Amino acid sequence: MTVVRSVGELRPFARERLAVGAPEAAIALLGSLLRRREPDGTWSVVRIVETEAYREDDAASHSAAGLTPRTAPMFARPGTAYVYRSYGIHWCLNVAAEPPGTGAAVLLRAAVALDGRDVLRERRPTARDDRELLRGPGRLCQALAVTAPEHDGADLLDDEATLQLVDDGYRPGRAEVVVGPRVGVRQAADVPWRFALRDVPEVSGYRRHPRAPRPA
Length: 216
Fold this sequence. Notes:
Structural class: alpha+beta
Largest sheet: 9 strands, antiparallel
CATH architecture: Roll
Low-confidence stretches: none
Number of strands: 9
Order of helices and strands: EHEEEEEHHHHEEE
Helix content: 10-25%
Number of helices: 5
Mean pLDDT: 96
CATH class: Alpha Beta
Distance between the termini: 37 Å
Radius of gyration: 16 Å
Number of domains: 1
Strand content: 25-35%
């Protein structure tokens, strides 16, 4: 999968690709590019290789309790960033999906580093190799310096933003996409809304929540 590790000609990511059901948006985001404008004006660029879908009729979703100040970005227009703390430690980046007013978003779980590796490594000094740089949502946010104060509620499709979703034309085929249950959720643990590119080592491992009910 050479294309996963190279960058083609950049173009805007179409908002309408996210104005669909959250699982479909999660698949649409696979293979897309996330880029971060660094303080020196250069860009760090990564390719998204793992996503998870959440929506308001989903017991595992933050939006299941309705619209709150915290979850407001999930109800905003597609492409809005929803950034939250996981267990009070790690930032996690989500992208709002579905039409405005619907509490849906896609968690970005893992990515492949393309440009700006030196900067990403500086922010992730404990990573043993490139595979671990962006393997997991907390590591992804740490490497790209994503935080709620800076990015929560931001429009990731704004070409003036410091954090942007962009497209280089890569569209993985269905045979390249692996589907399975989401990682570490206690409610709706068996809903198959986790999507990843097949045979990419940066994809995180599956861990079931210890208190999730066992499948029937």
